[in-house]
Amino acid sequence: MIKLNALKTAAAALVLLVSGSAFAQVTSGAGQDVTLNATLQETLTVALDQTAVNFALTSGSATNAGNVPVVATTSWILGPGRTDVQLYAYFDDPTSALALGTAKIASSSVSASVGGVSAGAFTNVVPFGTGISIFDQAITDLNRTSSKSSSVTLNIDLSTGYAQLPAGTYTGTLHFQAQATT
């Protein structure tokens, strides 16, 4: 009986030895590679919470505040070469920020405050027209992807040069535009 068990064990070992080599792995050789490319585009956007600001004008008054502030939210995802983000508000024509026919209110008569701090009248030449700088943000590796919200309140000064301004509704367009620089 011992011989039979020894013979069965030897036979089983022989089967395992032979079958192991029959199931050995085969590879395709050195293998093939694929290059992965993933691009995240730079973005720079400005979103405004208002589409209109209304003014109740008083002839000869320096204080004609807009009825609501404009909150400008600037968002960005920038590449490693960018060092600065700036937001500007501007008018296309410095002589005509608002107009009613041929009657005009100049951009120099419109002023802004940003976050409660005076930014002055729209008299500066900025990259996009006659306007003001809303903010200037240095870019580092810590804020390469970020956003900033700025509350802008507006005022129209009619105290000088507008004695003969006709009654009516004056309209104009104030632009907000951001720029990322290197």
* Uncertain runs: none
Helical region count?
1
Question: Roughly how much helix do the residues carry, as a percent range?
Answer: 10-25%
Q: Give the end-to-end Cα distance, rounded to a whole number of Å.
A: 91 Å
Q: Give the mean pLDDT.
A: 92
- CATH class reads Mainly Beta
List the helices and strands in order. HEEEEEEEEEEE
Describe this structure in words.
The protein is mainly beta. The protein has a single domain, classed as Immunoglobulin-like. Strands 1-2-10-6-7 form a 5-stranded antiparallel sheet, with no helix packed on it. A 4-stranded antiparallel sheet has the order 8-9-3-11, with no helix packed on it. The longest helix is centred in the N-terminal third of the chain and has 21 residues. The radius of gyration is 36 Å and the shape is rod-shaped. The termini are far apart.
